[in-house]
């Protein structure tokens, strides 16, 4: 597990930074507008959202070593060719690269579900969420610093090399995606019908995943808008760093708790503490205000990943984690425009309110849907501790 988390940290940081690397290349390398850069980033993000479940289904059927080399090869070709592509072909290539992005995070979550005993799985998912927060803090910042001092083409090549290295490392480790008492990919019970597992409980988790990432992407935009209004936009990086550090601390503490909390409750609390952050009009107070949201971020994300692993049978775990990743990508893509509209028609404080309300709405929807989920009896092959039956 330590080796897997180390390798996946490299790949995940590069994947997280890939959108920023493409944005910086369009702006600095092609000397085009930020709107054009947003179009390239949107093409890559759309590919990511659509490709998650497709790659997960392929992994379920063919295994890791049949899928990871193909995705790594696609990434190598794309990032090597970025500096020679005109803008229009770059959009299409970015979409294809998103479809075939190395599935670092979904594979890591599948491996955690297979390798960890049920009693330790929540702590492992909390650590994986902390890893995600670290990659979010480190990846884009490194890309921005390197793009300012090096050629954007070199940055693109570096991101591609890191993604390929992460995928190759996971392929070499070849972590198990099913525990010893779960059916093999080719077994008769390998792929239950979608209606048996894509029920109210799973839809609740996917909805909350969408709402959570929409909230988080909206908070980033609201932070920048608030500080720009007060002439302190240079402190935005500090506030976002505080948000990330608080999330890391919250994730570590949540992993050490003796019992889990319902996912909808964590997301609801995250939405509630986000709304008052709009009252802060100085970067120091904004650091204090966003710390509460950060403290709940990693626990909420880890609870969702844990819920997906429990609700998805082993034979479709790849597809389920891919759907979860797609829901999160869609939330990131749509959160900023929604919150941006709220800021334009009101004030920066309206951005925090819109982000928080999005989280609250998703939490309420998740709560209502999860109450409709029938409780499945535990079996020796997949027995869960008490108190973890619903999202």
From TrEMBL:
Segments forming domain Major facilitator superfamily (MFS) profile:
1-178
Localization in the cell: Cell membrane
Domain of life of the organism encoding this protein: Bacteria
Does Transport show up as a keyword for this record? Answer: no
Kindly list the residue ranges recorded as spanning the membrane.
Answer: 9-28, 34-55, 67-85, 91-112, 156-177, 197-227, 233-254, 261-277, 283-304, 349-369
The protein's matches in PROSITE patterns, at most eight in alphabetical order, are given as: MFS
GO cellular component terms listed in the entry, alphabetical order:
plasma membrane
Q: Which organism is it from?
A: Nonomuraea mesophila
Alphabetically sorted, this entry's keywords are:
Membrane, Transmembrane, Transmembrane helix
- Is the keyword Transmembrane helix assigned to this protein? yes
Q: Which GO terms describe its molecular function?
A: transmembrane transporter activity
Its placement in the membrane is given as: Multi-pass membrane protein
* Compositionally skewed regions (Low complexity) per UniProt: 371-380
Q: What is this protein called?
A: MFS transporter
Q: Where is this region: Disordered?
A: 371-391
Primary localization class, coarse: membrane
């Amino acid at each position: 597990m330590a080796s897997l988390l180390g390798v996946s940290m490299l790949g995940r940081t590069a994947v997280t930074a890939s959108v920023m690397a493409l944005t910086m290349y369009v702006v600095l390398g092609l000397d085009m507008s930020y709107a054009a850069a947003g179009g390239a980033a949107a093409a890559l993000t759309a590919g990511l959202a659509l490709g998650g479940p497709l790659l997960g289904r392929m992994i379920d059927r063919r295994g890791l070593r049949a899928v990871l080399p193909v995705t790594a090869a696609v990434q190598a070709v794309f990032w090597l060719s970025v500096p020679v592509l005109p803008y229009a072909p770059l959009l299409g290539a970015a979409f294809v690269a998103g479809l075939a992005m190395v599935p670092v995070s979904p594979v890591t979550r599948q491996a955690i579900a297979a390798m960890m005993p049920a009693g330790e799985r929540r702590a492992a998912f909390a650590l994986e969420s902390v890893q995600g927060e670290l990659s979010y803090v480190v990846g884009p910042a490194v890309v921005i610093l390197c793009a300012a001092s090096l050629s954007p083409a070199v940055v693109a090549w570096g991101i591609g090399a890191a993604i390929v290295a992460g995928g190759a490392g996971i392929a070499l480790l070849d972590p198990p995606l099913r525990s010893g008492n779960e059916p093999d990919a080719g077994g008769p019970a390998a792929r239950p019908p979608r209606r048996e597992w894509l029920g109210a409980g799973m839809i609740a988790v996917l909805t909350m995943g969408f709402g959570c990432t929409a909230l988080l992407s909206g908070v980033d935009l609201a932070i920048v808008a608030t500080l720009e209004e007060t002439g302190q936009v240079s402190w935005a990086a500090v506030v976002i760093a505080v948000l990330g550090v608080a999330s890391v601390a919250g994730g570590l503490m949540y992993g050490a708790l003796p019992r889990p909390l319902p996912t909808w409750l964590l997301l609801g609390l995250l939405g509630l503490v986000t709304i008052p952050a709009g009252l802060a009009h100085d970067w120091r107070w904004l650091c204090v205000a966003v710390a509460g949201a950060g403290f709940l971020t990693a626990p909420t994300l880890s609870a969702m990943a844990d819920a997906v692993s429990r609700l998805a049978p082993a034979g479709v775990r790849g597809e389920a984690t891919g759907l979860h990743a797609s829901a999160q990508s869609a939330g990131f893509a749509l959160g900023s425009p929604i919150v941006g509209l709220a800021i334009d028609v009101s004030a920066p404080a309206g951005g925090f309110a819109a982000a928080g309300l999005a989280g609250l709405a998703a939490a309420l929807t998740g709560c209502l849907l999860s109450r409709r989920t029938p409780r499945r009896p535990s079996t020796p092959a997949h027995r869960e501790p008490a108190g973890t039956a619903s999202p």
